[in-house]
Write a structure and sequence with these properties.
Length: 141
């Protein structure tokens, strides 16, 4: 009988290299991929599943935000910007190495200021994208 080999993403390899424990989770990439649906599919509370957003501030700087999938508020204030705008999809891959829907705060091509929502401190583990649509990692924040 053939043994099924777990698919590893760059995020998983980065976490292993840094000796950071994680639990891999997978979901059907053909199904709904919005954050709340992914949380439900994984059996995780939406407030414990974080979405990675790459933005450009009014000053031109790039910022990464990880927020509970059900909430997008106060990001600009958190980094001292007047406003932030989501990075256009066509710029995301070249800047981060990730596609829209698979962006992770772990292992981006370049390092940017990264801000996690304050509720991250309430949980023993959180889920973030594993760097590919259909894959998440659960880690200790």
């Amino acid at each position: 009988m053939a043994k099924h080999k777990e698919e590893k993403t760059n995020v998983m390899r980065t976490l292993e290299q840094k000796k950071i424990a994680y639990t891999a989770h997978a979901y059907d990439p053909e199904g709904p991929i919005d954050g709340v649906s992914v949380a439900q599919t994984l059996g995780q509370p939406a407030e414990q599943v974080f979405k990675t957003l790459v933005t450009r501030g009014a000053s031109g700087g790039y910022y990464v935000f990880d927020i509970p999938v059900a909430e997008l508020k106060k990001a600009a204030k958190a980094v001292g910007e007047k406003s932030v705008a989501m990075l256009p999809q066509k710029e995301l891959l070249g800047l981060t190495g990730y596609v829209h829907g698979g962006c992770s705060p772990v292992g981006m091509k370049k390092q940017f200021p990264t801000v996690f929502h304050e509720t991250v401190e309430l949980f023993d583990t959180i889920c973030v994208s594993a760097g590919k649509i259909g894959h998440q990692v659960e880690v200790d924040p």
